[in-house]
Amino acid sequence: MPPRRVPQPAAGRAPEQGSTSNDPMDVTATSMETLLKRFQSFRPPTLKGTKSAVECESWLDDIEMLFDSLEYTDERRVKLIGHQLQEVAKNWRLTTKRALEHRGTEITQKVFKAEFYQRLFPVSYRKDKGDEFANLRHGQLNIEEYVAKLSALLRFAPHVAESDEAVADQFINGLNLEIFTLVNSGRPNSFSEALNRAKGAEARLLRQRSTSYVAPTPRPLRKTS
Description:
It is a single chain. About 60% of the residues lie in helices and about 0% in strands. The chain has eleven helices and no strands. The protein has helices spanning about 25-40, 55-70, 75-80, 85-105, 110-120, 125-135, 145-155, 160, 165-175, 175-185, 190-210.
């Protein structure tokens, strides 16, 4: 697998090195300031929370992709993501943060995302997406396309997402019959095992089809007088 490419900061925006102060409070403040400056140099997307649910979903996908590329820890993600919320979204975060702290709930990225979906995605939208996830089938997609769609919809089925075995079951049950039969022999217990088997089965079937294919004999051209 080729090494992951990490986004480069915008031109002319070199990362700050921070202070060398011996005061622990100053060091902590400087460290956060440096982290924020570096993060902002990649021009992360912002969200006002006044747009459609699709745009909110797209924003979360984009910023999480940036977090993944930078290999940020959960703690850093929680600290930084709030800086990208504006107007309605910013007010929602402040209110939600106070409510969670009052209940003594630790604010992790997982908790943030759960609250985010509850507030910024209408119930009807979440229900439609949940139904789409439950009814998703392999169909005409290849395995990679099927997995990509399954993963995108998984967020709307938290009861499934919490269990790797449940995700594997959902994935296997949606496969086309030929691949389902090959994968389901000795039912895999994990999603990664099911995915590897499905890819292998898909490749095997493609090879069989290519070797058994017989090119049609061209029809002779009719002579014209």
